[in-house]
Amino acid sequence: MRLYAISDLHLGSTENRETLSAITPRPDDWLAIAGDVGETEEHLRFALDALGGKFARLIWTPGNHELWSLPPGSPRGRARYERMVELCQARGALTPEDDYPLAAFGGRTFRVAPLFTLYDYSFRPDDVPFEQAVAWAREAGVRCADEIMLDPAPHPDRPSWCRERCDLAERRLRAACADGTPTVLINHWPLLSELVRVPRAPRFSLWCGTRRTADWPRRFRAEVVISGHLHMRGTTIVDGVRYEEVSLGYPQQWRRRIAPDALAVQVLG
Ligand SMILES: [Fe+2]
Ligand SMILES: [Fe+2]
């Protein structure tokens, strides 16, 4: 059995929706979907239905786009996340709320941990105070739609939600990893700040993760860490741990760059 991964399907794009049918079926293998499937429940249902028949098991983690309050009147914040989790569980897809299962890829056993950690603006230079971080990005013309669209309810703000999610994941990883089995960590946002390279808008790093997770890959024995969000596909090795950015992205970002057979990235096996 192998593990494949993809993220940032952005199914609001008709071309991206059509591309799902081009993903090679691998009925014996698992597929991790690392967030930004789209903005609506319909986008998530579409992806789960289209990909569920192609792989033995799907693993889903949320991205910021799933958490946007769209369409108006739909559930917001934590209630929205829980609704997305329900949709996944109803179709047998693993979510960050499920036990972290053991799975054998390429004959080796791994613990598979889908995570949802969000961000807390801590990916910023040390001399920029937390309170001024968003204004510091705005000075350079950098804004993130999450500031308007990603409602953190019932938390007072996104960093509070991030803290709660990290506390929970850290506790669960500590318990699940006590047996020393190597892990596969899956999260929409990169776990390390040094992986965040956004040349056209470096200050966008504020919305890309949290320093809280920097030592998780080594502490929790990650063989590989899967993430998306940056729309910059690639493999990076840091301190002996492999990091796979597996975004598809918007059509202009993947068209002519990704072969149909490589839409989903083979990560293990
Ligand atoms: Fe994205
Ligand atoms: Fe994202």
UniProtKB/TrEMBL annotation:
<dbReference type="InterPro" id="IPR029052">
    <property type="entry name" value="Metallo-depent_PP-like"/>
</dbReference>
<dbReference type="GO" id="GO:0016787">
    <property type="term" value="F:hydrolase activity"/>
</dbReference>
<feature type="domain" description="Calcineurin-like phosphoesterase">
    <location>
        <begin position="1"/>
        <end position="232"/>
    </location>
</feature>
<dbReference type="Pfam" id="PF00149">
    <property type="entry name" value="Metallophos"/>
</dbReference>
<dbReference type="InterPro" id="IPR004843">
    <property type="entry name" value="Calcineurin-like_PHP"/>
</dbReference>
<keyword id="KW-0378">Hydrolase</keyword>
<protein>
    <submittedName>
        <fullName>Metallophosphoesterase family protein</fullName>
        <ecNumber>3.1.-.-</ecNumber>
    </submittedName>
</protein>
<dbReference type="InterPro" id="IPR052963">
    <property type="entry name" value="Pantetheine_PDE"/>
</dbReference>
